[in-house]
Amino acid sequence: MNLATAFPPFGLRIEAGPLVLRPITDDVLPALVNLALGGIHDPRRMPFYVPWTDAPPDRLPLNFTQYHWGVRASWAPEHWDLQFAVEYEGRVVGCQGLATKDYLVTRTGETGSWLGLQHHGAGIGTKMRQAICALCFDHLDADEVTSAAFADNPASNAVSRKVGYQPNGTMRKTRREGEWKGSQQWMLTRETFNRGPEITVSGAPEFRRFIGLDPVDAPCA
Q1: In what order do the strands lie in the sheet containing 144-150?
Q2: Percentages (nearest 5) of helix, strand, coil residues in the chain
């Protein structure tokens, strides 16, 4: 028995050249906390629906680790949030996630991500989005993938366009207290997907069984 056997999301790994999406196990949490403390975005603008980066530096580490522990604890086949630490050329640079509800029925999930400020502008955001979308379409039988970003987040919206997402309406969303902004909704299908480098995936068969896509093998007589 190991952690990946007990919790198959810990066995998923996606590689695309120098890019690696690896599970957020406890050993990588300190590196992600340090990255977040170093800055993710211009503090004058909030790109996240939940303004978690506004937490003071003495609270952010605890908030961050508790959030990821909570993601694991609340996992269920009916609603789950798959979170990866992103490594590029051997360095931890950010996070990439995919959240969904009733996946076996809807076959859709929403991507979300962040990068440390020092890694912005190098094309990594596009590569990691392409990698998670390739996982969805090629290994998880997805019909579509969605995303969203505030209108004043041009970098995220540019990534969506590059990857092939199509505009799917706008919504008013709150972020900081008493503040709303228009949020651009995006939808990606196999037909519009602009693929990146070929991916190699480990742990997909076990994950598929875990979320109910494939039947669990019957025990031997």
Answers
A1: 166-174, 180-189, 144-150, 108-115, 91-101, 79-88, 19-23, 13-16, 200-202
A2: 35, 30, 35
The C-alpha atoms of residue 108 and residue 103 are separated, in whole angstroms, by 6
Q: Is the pLDDT of residue 218 over 70?
A: no
Nearest-CA neighbor of 163 among 128, 135, 137? 128
Does position 138 have pLDDT exceeding 60, yes or no? yes
- Torsions phi, psi for 213 (to 5 deg): -70, -35
Q: Could you tell me the two tokens for 63?
A: 């908030």
Q: What is the pLDDT of residue 219?
A: 46
Given this model, what pLDDT does residue 220 score?
Answer: 45
> For 88-132, what is each residue's pLDDT tens digit?
999 999 999 999 999 999 999 999 999 999 999 999 999 999 999
What are the angstrom distances between the C-alpha of 102 and each of 8, 93, 106, 112, 212? 18, 30, 6, 18, 11
Please measure the distance between the N-terminal and C-terminal CA atoms of the chain and give it in whole angstroms: 22
| Domain boundary assignment for the chain | 3-142+195-211
DSSP reduced 3-state for 195: coil
Cβ count within 10 A of residue 130: 22
**Which class for 49: exposed (0-12), middle (13-18), buried (19 or more C-beta within 10 A)?**
middle
Q: Which CATH number fits domain 3-142+195-211: 3.40.50.300, 3.90.550.10, 3.40.630.30, 3.30.1490.100?
A: 3.40.630.30
